[in-house]
Amino acid sequence: MPVPPLPFPHHTAPAASGHRHVLIPYAAVAGMEQALQLPHLDALLARLVSADTLDGEEEDLCPPHERMAAHWRGWADLAAAHKASLPWAALAANQQPDCSAQGTAAGAWAFLTPCHWAVGTDQVRLDNPTELQLDETDSRALLAVLAPWFAEDGLQLHYAQPDHWLVQGSPLQTLQSASLDRVLLRDVRHWTPTTSATLPLQRLHSEVQMLLYTHPFNESRAARGLPPVNAFWLHGVGKLPAAKAAVTTAQPEVWESLRAPALLGHSRLWEQAWSALDAGPMAALLQHVQAGGSASLALCGERSARSYSTGPRGLGQRIRSLLTPQRFDSVRKAL
């Protein structure tokens, strides 16, 4: 089953030429500690030198792969502030024609993902938004229903994709909200602390839930056998300073195949995805480096990230790589 898309700009195929920036989300996952045989990754790590280190905790608002993508983009200070949101929505707004005229000068932006909250006796779980199967017609109809309610709180909604919209407004200036990867299939209450900045948002959540509970929009969905939309999640929140908007570093090449099984808790599929990555793209990346090409490789877990890069190695480093080569088994413990 698919999961919501990554919020930051990236490629899924190698660049035609030049230095390759390869980022692997969920290279290590808590509860998935099975032994992995990844000979091509081990061979590649033995040829690379350590580059960037981003340490953190599972409680951080943004996962390490988002922070590493921000770091590679040139947002080193934002990537280091792991208790804060990353302004991916502001970046997207600047690249969308009907929003670019307002851009960063208009202040903070956020992504809004329509979703379903499953309320139980001991948790309020955010279900996988892709299960809603929203198409453009339904998504635009829902936006029209919700836009007046958000406008009353100074928030303007802008359609972007069926599964997410853009939000703009002054209430977002001080808001910090967790990445969608952090809350998927988890208890949202853990990620919605009560602060002066979140109280208006919590009230808006309650109003939207009441509005949609018996709304014809959801009645129509029920008639088609589709789950109701009863909530939303704001993520990628923040203001993009003009200086940051001008950064033009290359977009990373993201190998996403580990992400869905990790988020959905499918251990066997995650292991199979790792084997396929090593046999295919990783083998090709190793060949690229062996042929004299340059590359950076970021391995990201749920807490931390480590990146490695081609570059000159001293005699001592070369000897150590031969005698005690760096292997993924030791790296994954730090992720």
- The gyration radius over C-alpha positions equals 21 Å
N/C terminus separation: 25 Å
Instruction: Write down the domain tally.
Output: 2
Helical content class: 25-40%
**Global outline:** globular
Q: What is the mean pLDDT? A: 89
- Kindly estimate the percentage of residues that lie in beta strands according to DSSP: 15-25%
Query: How many DSSP helices?
Result: 14
Q: Which class of secondary structure composition applies to the elements? A: alpha+beta
Number of E-state strands:
11
Uncertain parts: none
The major pleated sheet works out as: 5 strands, mixed
Note the run of SSEs as H and E. EHEHHHHEEEHEEHHHEHEHHEEHH
> Strand order across the biggest sheet?
2-11-10-1-9
Layout of SSEs?
Layout: E1 20-24, H1 39-45, E2 49-54, H2 64-73, H3 76-80, H4 88-94, H5 97-100, E3 109-115, E4 117-119, E5 124-126, H6 136-151, E6 156-161, E7 164-168, H7 180-183, H8 199-213, H9 216-223, E8 231-238, H10 242-245, E9 253-254, H11 259-264, H12 267-290, E10 295-300, E11 305-309, H13 315-323, H14 328-331
Parallel strand pairs: 1-9, 1-10
Antiparallel strand pairs: 2-11, 3-7, 3-8, 4-5, 6-7, 10-11
Helix pairs in contact: 1-12
Task: List the defining traits of the structure above.
2 domains, 14 helices, 11 strands, 335 residues, alpha+beta, 17% strand, 5-stranded mixed beta sheet, single chain, 4-stranded antiparallel beta sheet, 37% helix
Summarize this entry quickly:
The chain has helices spanning 39-45, 64-73, 76-80, 88-94, 97-100, 136-151, 180-183, 199-213, 216-223, 242-245, 259-264, 267-290, 315-323, 328-331; strands spanning 20-24, 49-54, 109-115, 117-119, 124-126, 156-161, 164-168, 231-238, 253-254, 295-300, 305-309.
